[in-house]
């Protein structure tokens, strides 16, 4: 669970390569963890990553962009990662036995298309 909290904290200071090669493979494994609180936090972390991936440029990080005051278009690869790597796992989590896991997976999935967030489980 500690790694999940770090994902949420570090999301704005990592590049697309770090997300793709390090963060997403770890989260792939945790989607099927036996402990509901782990799966719950995975769904919450996906929500954070989706927000970052929608803004992340091809080179650099959100933090470096904001610090420099420059702007860069989001990388199409970010959207690909959302659709190909995150969405399938969120769909699994939306069918979870635990109501909280389902809620946060549904909330994260809704953030992909920019739908309004649901406010209660």
How does CATH name the architecture? Alpha Horseshoe
Oligomer: single chain
Strand proportion: under 5%
Look at the structure and give the mean pLDDT: 86
Helix content range: 55-70%
Give the name of the CATH superfamily. Leucine-rich Repeat Variant
Summing up helix and strand content along with how strands pair, one would put the structural category as mainly alpha
Number of domains: 1
Low-confidence stretches: 115-121
- In CATH, what is the class? Mainly Alpha
Tally of helical runs:
6
CATH fold description: Leucine-rich Repeat Variant
**Rg (CA only):** 14 Å
Q: How many strands, what sense, and barrel or not for the largest sheet?
A: none
Distance between the termini: 21 Å
Describe the structure concisely for a colleague:
With 121 residues, the chain is mainly alpha-helical. Helices cover 68% and strands 0% of the residues.
Structural account:
The chain has 121 residues and is mainly alpha-helical. The chain has a single domain, classed as Leucine-rich Repeat Variant, CATH 1.25.10.10. The protein has helices at 2-10, 16-30, 36-53, 62-68, 76-93, 99-113. Helix 1 packs parallel to helix 3. The longest helix is centred in the middle third of the chain and has 18 residues, at 36-53. It is elongated, with a radius of gyration of 14 Å. Residues 115-121 have low confidence and may be disordered.
């Amino acid at each position: 669970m500690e790694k999940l909290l770090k994902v949420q904290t570090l999301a704005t200071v990592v590049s697309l390569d770090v997300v793709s090669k390090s963060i997403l493979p770890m989260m792939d494994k945790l989607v099927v963890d036996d402990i509901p609180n782990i799966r719950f936090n995975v769904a919450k972390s996906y929500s954070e990553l989706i927000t970052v991936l929608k803004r992340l440029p091809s080179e650099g990080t959100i933090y470096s962009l904001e610090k420099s005051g420059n702007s860069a278009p989001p990388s199409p690869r970010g959207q690909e990662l959302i659709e190909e790597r995150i969405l399938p796992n969120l769909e699994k989590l939306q069918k979870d036995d635990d109501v909280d896991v389902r809620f946060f997976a549904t909330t994260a999935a809704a953030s992909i298309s920019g739908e309004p967030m649901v406010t209660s489980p």
